[in-house]
Input
Amino acid sequence: MDYCIKKTISLVLLVLVLGGLPGCFDHAKENQKESADNANAGKVQSVPFALVNILDKGIYDTCHIKGSINVPYEDLKDYAEHNWDKDMTKIVVYCANYRCAASIEAAQLLVKDLGFKKENVWAYEGGAASARHDGLAMEGTDCKTPAYLNDVPQVENKASEQEGIQLISSDNLKEMLEKFAHRP
Output
């Protein structure tokens, strides 16, 4: 009888130990992941290209260039500092149309205030209106009726180029989108 009890106790202990081991390993993995996360906390992701709609989320959801992300202007500084490499990431910012100066202001913020390389930052002044008019792929809940999408007259903005902000045309933006769409 003592032999059976000892075997049972040994078996129960073995099951408890083996059953508990995966939990221990999981905890160790969590600690390793946490250490890796802490080590990478100050590092910026290596994103090669970002097409950024800087309007409010509601406007972005209505209609935006396919493949673009939404970073409202008021969030741009924090987002850029944590997500893009100042020396490597190529960034095109855009807003609604030529009458909207937010794309120029966003490009200036990136280059002048945050120190992004000016050769890697462009303002797409024509915005969503020009993109739709010039045949870029668009997506959203309603790309047909918003009035700002019908406002396509081109306004020359020589001041932007003089201030060191690069402007990008619809054709050049199409080329850039194709180039980065085929990257691994």
